[in-house]
Amino acid sequence: MKTALTIAGSDSGGGAGIQADLKTFAAHGVYGMSVITAITAQNTVEVRSVQNIDEQIIQDQIEAVFDDLKVDAVKIGMLSSPSIVTTVAETLAKYQPNHIVLDPVMVSKGGHRLLAEDAISALKEELMPLADIITPNIPEAEILTEQKILNELDMKSACISFKKLGVKSVLLKGGHLSTDPNDLFYDGENFYWVKGKRVHTKNTHGTGCTLSSAIAANLAKGNTLLTSVQLAKAYIEVAIEHSLDLGNGHGPTNHFYELYKRAHLMNQ
Ligand SMILES: Nc1ncnc2c1ncn2[C@@H]1O[C@H](COP(=O)(O)OP(=O)(O)OP(=O)(O)O)[C@@H](O)[C@H]1O
Ligand SMILES: Cc1ncc(COP(=O)(O)O)c(N)n1
């Protein structure tokens, strides 16, 4: 059985964070494990409060997993504070896992900060170089590269800036541009457009979490980085297309559609 570990925050509403990651792993037939960095009191409308987990307990969770279980891929999401970023970077460096996917989560869809401003430099210097791939959206990439991204040409230039920052590869998500959500994958040498078509829905809570977990799940299964990105893009598109109209805000992506389809195919 292939396995994947998510290191991220908990979303009580179940649409993003650890909960989205574990659902994504399960939908890919990958055994999921979790290290919780922070607990958010959250629903589809808002983040009400955040409690960071003690750094020692974060370190203990990572060590408990790696000291006993096989980890085929790691996905990192919400890290909240500078000391949590450092704890995760230092503890992971000890184990050197095979594949690390870093989603540099900064702000929730509702506008609540999920990474303190003074944690950004630690994220750039300590964690980004450890990752095999980072998956920023456009606002996150603008902050990390300190440049404006207004079009597809700017996206290419931002990817090159990431390489200069020591990043191995980037999937720069184009969902925040007004065009179709075309993402740009840069492996440090070549550019690949991973194209999508926009689904007109407000139910996009947890899309970034889902995409990065799907990349990790596909890497765990032995796919190359490019194939993993392409498969993950196809997965998120279906998950958004069949997203669930739950709650009064941004509803969650649907991880069950693929599962039901697979179960249906197996019964035929
Ligand atoms: N409305 C949409 N229709 C189709 N694909 C979309 C849509 N919105 C985003 N995507 C795609 O979903 C994936 C996640 O991208 P997005 O830009 O939403 O991430 P994000 O802003 O980091 O998400 P989150 O806010 O959940 O962290 C990307 O592949 C993006 O192109
Ligand atoms: C615990 C946690 N992690 C990540 C996100 C980002 O997801 P979104 O941008 O869809 O709110 C979130 N809201 N909560």
TrEMBL record:
InterPro entries per the UniProt record, alphabetical: HMP/HMP-P_kinase_dom, PM/HMP-P_kinase-1, Ribokinase-like
Pyridoxamine kinase/Phosphomethylpyrimidine kinase domain mapped to chain residues: 11-254
Catalytic activity, EC: 2.7.1.49, 2.7.4.7
Source organism, top-level taxon: Bacteria
CDD domains for this protein: HMPP_kinase
UniProt similarity note: Belongs to the ThiD family.
Name of the protein this chain belongs to: Hydroxymethylpyrimidine/phosphomethylpyrimidine kinase
Organism in which the protein naturally occurs: Caldibacillus thermoamylovorans
